[in-house]
Amino acid sequence: MAMKTQDIIDLMGRFDTSGIGRMKITSGDTTIELEKPGCGPVPPAPVAGPAAAPAPAPAAAPAAPAAAPAAAPAADEVPAADGPCITAPLVGTFYVAPSPDKDPYVQPGDHVKKGDTVCLLEAMKMMSEVTAPCDCVIDEIMAADGELVSFGAPLIRYHEA
To answer: pLDDT tens digits for 109-125?
Structure first.
């Protein structure tokens, strides 16, 4: 089934307002690739975009407002917790390496270039590479290897190099 012009326009509008930095869609013999310039627009949108991610945060905040101040002094990673994230462009299983016997694509502290593969997502037996949105340094791997992640879920926290 070929995509209609209006479908493409709608897709572009949704892409612009989403937290996705890069996307490739194939429908029939039509393939569309969209990518946002730079990596600035990517981090803010996923935090507000996915419904699943904010739900646990509000539940934890009202239940234990005193716990938040207790966690802040105990963690030296507070600056890293506020950085941008590479988010899941689709629902799938998160993998840190190309196969179980291979080294992870990235580890905290690694310097990566824009476009370098940082992890894989498997959905319906299809492996999709997730790439770095800019030249950056990896701060934290936020998802566990083999974990099912939802669309927009934070996978890797980074800061620009």
So the answer is: 999 999 999 999 999 88
For the chain, how many helices (H) and strands (E)? 5, 10
DSSP state of 24: E
Please give the structure tokens belonging to residue 73.
Answer: 């002094």
Owner of token pair 């690739």: 33
* 3-class SS of residue 47: helix
7-to-36, 73, 90 alpha-carbon distances in Å: 19, 49, 19
Residues paired with 6 in a beta bridge: none
Output DSSP code: residue 46: H
Q: pLDDT averaged over the chain?
A: 75
- Report residue 106: phi and psi, to 5°: -140, 160
